[in-house]
Amino acid sequence: MTSHTDVDARAVDTATRLRAAGLRVTDSRRAVVDALIERPHASADELFAVVARTLPATSLQSVYNALGDFVDAGLARRIEPAGRPGLFELRVDDNHHHLICSQCGAVEDVDCVVGAAPCLTPADAHGYAVQVAEVTFWGICPACANAASTAGEPAASVAARP
Amino acid sequence: MTSHTDVDARAVDTATRLRAAGLRVTDSRRAVVDALIERPHASADELFAVVARTLPATSLQSVYNALGDFVDAGLARRIEPAGRPGLFELRVDDNHHHLICSQCGAVEDVDCVVGAAPCLTPADAHGYAVQVAEVTFWGICPACANAASTAGEPAASVAARP
DNA sequence: ATCACTGTTTTGAGTTACTCAAAACAACGC
DNA sequence: GCGTTGTTTTGAGTAACTCAAAACAGTGAT
Q1: Which of A2, A138, B91, B118 is most exposed, with the fewest beta carbons within 10 Å of its own?
Q2: CB–CB of B137 and A135 under 8 A?
Q3: B107, B130, B137, B146: which to substitute to probe chain A, counting the most A Cβ within 10 Å?
Q4: Which comes out higher in pLDDT, residue B125 or B73?
Q5: pLDDT tens by residue, B70-114
């Protein structure tokens, strides 16, 4: 019973967030934000596919434009795991890290590492003014582990790394 | 007076290492190893340029082949900092990390992070079997910091990130 | 030293994940 | 509604690779 109101509320909220960031509110930008909510660690291509479902006239380039603008405006963050295209997420400004399945590519957020802000100080900074530390954990997700033990094949859902 | 002997010793050593890894010893592979010794965090293109100085007939593809074979054989490691091409290094099997200048792209090795093996355990592993943790520190190198404070321009040496 | 076998290199084409630019279009303030 | 300026579309262009076939060369056996 609340779905219509919820969608409206989210739409209004999205519009406000876009405007607050100095960006004009357009259909495709709204659709890209919605796609990012639906798929929190997706590539431009994947987001384009999601956007195209509701807005078939949109171009991939527009999705790239929107994502680039979002990143510049601090509304979205771009991560780039080795061997994969850039992935985008709305979680921003909390310096969280990522846990990625080396088989199926699934991505999970990791709030922080055990211990007190551990990964912010290298043993030897070589005179650098260190600004951020990026941590990526690589492992096997439960689904792939399961698939490997029961059958012979992994549970491919995203692109597998060779 | 020892330079000739040193070069021979290194050459022999390189040949042995290649053979031990099950790889045939060829001129281009030796040249790629030498290039990797000279430039410890270089891209395939950069290594190709170094190799081409002594072996002008070599193709870029051969450098890619050699590097791929080295990585497969565990002789080299490939890192892929966000927004940059893949970089290769001979330091392998010690799980060290990297400190990268976000202005000029300079790369330093970082032995480990302060504290006891801190970056190996995410706060919540989401059921994943975590295998490795990759840490990348981004900062400003001394040269760029200097250049920024004295002049208006950074000390560009590698490719700058926008 | 030569040969055959098999791995390596070269050449050339193809792909992915983008970026750049110009012209058509649309949001927003008036 | 209208003009301004930002956005989207279209289309071309690029970097950093990967793939494949044919020419070539290391290696162990002879």
Answers
A1: A2
A2: no
A3: B137
A4: B73
A5: 999 999 999 999 999 999 999 998 878 999 999 999 999 998 655
